[in-house]
Automatic annotation (TrEMBL):
GO terms for molecular function: oxidoreductase activity, acting on the CH-CH group of donors. This is Acyl-CoA dehydrogenase. InterPro entries: Acyl-CoA_Oxase/DH_mid-dom_sf, AcylCoA_DH/oxidase_NM_dom_sf. Gene3D superfamilies: Butyryl-CoA Dehydrogenase, subunit A, domain 2. It comes from the Bacteria.
């Protein structure tokens, strides 16, 4: 069997007709990093180098490698994905290449009670306020932070280890993604470097591809559960018709997502220049479909593997809990409504 990541000619997306239920051979150095007790920074920087993910890699490579990583360990993929996102944002904005030993997050969530504003202090930008949902802020070195100013929202590069940046390290009782605490960060006139012009962060088409990259990780996590469940079933002495049905349902669901991602990657990496609206419409379609599919794959995997795995198989139980928390980040009905609004807006323009 070909070793994963030694070639870009095969993969879950690139070759959607190949069996998904066989666990690929992973390079020893990759497995060593994923299973190590290294710090988040060391894991992120090592994996970015091993997987050759710079943020400027073709979308199919980013989605493929992150989903395969999520199939091994959802938490590690969740750790790496924002770093890849940040590298892409910095490169697209023409920002200087960051230190290869730095590990980045992207903090864009806005809550009415948690907002960060930029204070213009002459030649220096200073951030003030509290940002919610800042994953691994106490461990990472840097982050892209979205802050509000008089000219709109803007992305800023911030050194998370500056004394005026204070991650709030309270309790994180989550059972899923336990290794990815996501608390608040207080910025007290923290120096920051602008990344791109005002409102650029959300307006660029590549924002949509980043949304699909996260969904690819959801799918990878679900795929890992499905592989474990399928192997449990295939190794049974007596296979029940109900199990055969569930395996068939898994296969159909997984094939649909693989082919959808293959077509979407071809579009994202192709010559067509997408507007922000068209790219985001495609992302909403893909994210909504993968969200539903990942939920169904998770349920079918539990049923096919049987109830014992949730109490006797630590890897399955952790992956199941991790995926549940990761999927909760989807905006659900709001994203479905946004897709409908996007279609109506184009229809209204066409009728003018």
């Amino acid at each position: 069997m070909e070793t994963l990541f030694d070639s870009t000619s095969s993969g879950i997306i690139a070759t959607p007709f190949e069996p998904w239920w066989e666990t690929p051979d992973f390079r020893d150095d990759l497995t060593e990093v994923v299973t190590s007790s290294a710090s988040a920074v060391d894991k992120i920087t090592a994996l970015a180098r091993l997987l050759q993910l710079t943020g400027c890699s073709p979308q199919i490579d980013q989605w493929e490698r992150l989903l395969q990583l999520a199939a091994i360990d959802i938490g590690v993929a969740r750790m790496l994905e924002p770093h890849v996102d940040a590298l892409g944002i910095l490169a697209e904005a023409g920002h200087e290449t960051p230190d290869p030993d730095s590990a980045w997050g992207v903090y864009a969530a806005d809550l009415p009670t948690h907002r960060v504003n930029v204070v213009d202090a002459g030649a220096e930008n200073l951030l003030t306020g509290t940002k919610a949902w800042c994953s691994l802020a106490a461990e990472l070195t840097d982050a892209i932070v979205i802050a509000s100013g008089s000219d709109g929202n803007r992305a800023y590069a911030v050194n998370l280890r500056h004394p005026r940046v204070r991650p709030q390290t309270g309790a994180w009782p989550s059972l899923g993604l336990r290794e990815i605490p996501s608390g608040s960060v207080v910025f007290d006139r923290a120096p920051a470097t602008s990344v791109g012009p005002p409102n650029w962060y959300l307006d660029r088409p590549s924002f949509a591809w980043g949304g699909i990259r996260v969904a690819a990780c959801w799918f990878g996590g679900a795929l890992g559960l499905a592989r474990r469940a399928a192997q449990t079933h295939l190794n049974r002495a007596g296979r029940s018709p109900m199990g055969e049905m569930q395996l068939g349902q898994l296969d159909a669901e997984i094939f649909a997502v693989r082919t959808m991602l293959a077509q979407t990657a071809a579009a994202a990496d192709g010559d067509e220049k997408f507007s922000r609206e068209h790219a985001w419409r495609l992302a909403l379609r893909v994210r909504n479909n993968i969200y539903r599919s990942a939920q169904r794959i998770q349920l079918l995997s539990r049923e096919l593997a049987g109830p014992a795995v949730l109490t006797s198989d630590a890897a399955f139980a952790k992956a199941d809990a991790d995926l549940t928390v990761y999927l909760s980040q989807h905006h659900g009905p709001r994203d479905e409504a946004a897709l409908g609004e996007n279609i109506c807006a184009e229809s209204d323009v066409d009728e003018v």
